[in-house]
């Protein structure tokens, strides 16, 4: 794979675009509607600002998220899923449906 | 979350059970049928034996994969998705369908 192409296998392509658990959890939050950076941080306890910034930039690069800056005082910046990004709803729904079938391990 | 319970949110539960990209790629291979350890390694260039063992054990623990040892010489051990594990087909199909809609970035 060169720098400018994505994996040809759709599953590998997905895993490249949604790298690590945080990426999917950010999408989970954005499926509820546009969020400011701080709101995303608050919704995802434990995420570092660096990771959040990095994932949002990756999403912007690939047309999954738009970043809108409003000329207000103080400045307001919102992140929102594009129609392409909203298509991830199908994937997260499938994840959710499957995972809820997995029983909790018996307690010791 | 205690050691013996899984995340309640289905998406978080999925990400816990399929931790890291290799887990999903192992499932992708097993969806083609049972595999021996060595066959999985060969199908996944770059995976370390440690990671492969760790993911397969996690899958066994949660009833996603069975490990069958055949009393042959040399011994043969096969890994196979359970019906629960085969249900991941829906998730991987959704990943694949979505990711193939994401255009390659324009070449420089």
From TrEMBL, chains A, B:
Pfam family of the protein (one): HxlR
The name under which this protein is listed is: Transcriptional regulator
Question: What UniProt keywords apply to this chain's record, in alphabetical order?
Answer: DNA-binding, Transcription, Transcription regulation
Lineage, top-rank taxon, reads: Bacteria
PROSITE patterns reported in the protein's UniProt record: HTH_HXLR
Domain HTH hxlR-type span(s) in chain numbering: 9-107
Q: Which organism is it from?
A: Kribbella albertanoniae
Q: Which CDD domains match?
A: HTH_ARSR (cd00090)
Q: One GO molecular-function annotation for this sequence?
A: DNA binding
């Amino acid at each position: 794979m060169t720098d400018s192409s994505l994996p040809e296998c759709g599953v590998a392509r997905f895993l490249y675009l949604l790298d690590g658990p945080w990426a999917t959890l950010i999408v989970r939050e954005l499926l509820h509607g546009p969020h400011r950076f701080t709101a995303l941080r608050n919704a995802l306890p434990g995420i570092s600002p660096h990771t959040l910034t990095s994932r949002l930039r990756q999403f912007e690069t690939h047309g999954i998220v738009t970043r809108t800056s409003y000329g207000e005082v103080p400045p307001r910046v919102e992140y929102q899923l594009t129609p392409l990004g909203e298509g991830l709803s199908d994937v997260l729904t499938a994840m959710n449906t499957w995972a809820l079938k997995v029983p909790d391990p018996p307690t010791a």
